[in-house]
Amino acid sequence: MKLQNKIVFITDADSGSGKAIVNRLAAEGAHFILNSTSGGEDIESNLQLLKAFGSKVVVTNINLCKSSDLEAMLEETARQLGTIDIFVHNNNVVKPASVETCEEQLFLEIINANAKSAFICTRAIGKQMSAMQSGKVIYVSSIHAEKPTGSSFAYSASKGAVKMLCREAALVLGRDGINVNVIELGPVEGDQEFFQSDISTLYDSYQYKVPNANLGSHDDLAHLVLYLSTDEARYVNGADIRMDGGFLMHYMDFKMKRP
Q1: Overall domain count for the chain
Q2: Residue 44's domain spans which residues?
Q3: pLDDT digits (tens, 9 = 90+) for 54-82
Q4: pLDDT tens track for 206-226
Q5: Residue 2 lies in a domain
Q6: Between the CA of residue 209 and those of 222, 229, 249, what are the distances in Å?
Q7: CA-closest candidate to residue 25, choices 161, 224, 170
Q8: Quick check: is 140 in a domain?
Q9: For residue 74, what pLDDT is reported?
Q10: Domain CATH code at residue 164
Q11: How many C-beta atoms lie closer than 10 Å to residue 16's C-beta?
Q12: 88: closest CA among 108, 117, 63?
């Protein structure tokens, strides 16, 4: 098993991506701290699977933007499980937000959920990892760190911030044997609902804008998270890994692979 007895902290465990990552890493012998806004209710089947695998798990529901809450949780879970070996920041709040009309409160809500939480967690968990002289930090981000959505500029801004946080953290934490990387995930099923736009056609027939016309899945994401969590990725640090099947390379609709 590639992650035998490793302690993994995953944020937004209730999401489809969170559930897929939990299941994949559990099969490799990991133990878990799962931040769940439902308090574990929405991941009951995952928790049963973890029990079957023999994984230890602590379910939390804390404000990741509040340093005091996070540090108290880390202190308590360190007593129960041990210090964190792998941190997967998986927050992905998407809400419509126009540059022209977005209220400041909504902008801050999206930035805090997606970017500030990444910084607060990286600062606190990075200290633990630095003391151990090892660790893996993985940000699950979006291709919209690179390309506007046409529907939520605040989302794109938050993901761009995470991209640069990764690069800066890789320089600093890398000196202590910690790998810091970001996965920029492309479209999966249902994304047309998240990125509905009055000014962009990016997500019209978007499945055909992937050259092979096959969308990726959260299971694909989980496999990449596993790789970055292992010693096999020891020389991968500060990388932006775009995982979109070639979606961002699309530019000619008449050449799309339609049925």
Answers
A1: 1
A2: 7-255
A3: 999 999 999 999 999 999 999 999 999 99
A4: 999 999 999 999 999 999 999
A5: no
A6: 23, 30, 9
A7: 224
A8: yes
A9: 98
A10: 3.40.50.720
A11: 16
A12: 117
Q: Which 3-state string (H, E, C) describes 105-158? A: HHHHHHHHHHHHHHHHHHHHHHHHHHHHCCEEEEEEEEHHHCCCCCCEHHHHHH
Q: Is residue 1 part of a domain?
A: no
* Alpha-carbon torsion (148, 66, 119, 46), positive or negative: negative
Would you state the structure tokens that stand for residue 171, as one six-digit string? 């320089």
Instruction: Give exposure, 193-221, as e/b (b: 16+ Cβ within 10 Å).
Output: ebbebeeeebbeebbbbbeeeebbebebb
Sign of the CA dihedral with 17 first, then 204, 184, and 258 last? positive
| The token pair that represents 31 in the structure block | 């133990």
Distance of alpha carbon 8 from alpha carbon 30, whole angstroms: 7
Specify the pTM: 0.97
Residue 43 and residue 38: Cα distance in Å, rounded? Answer: 8
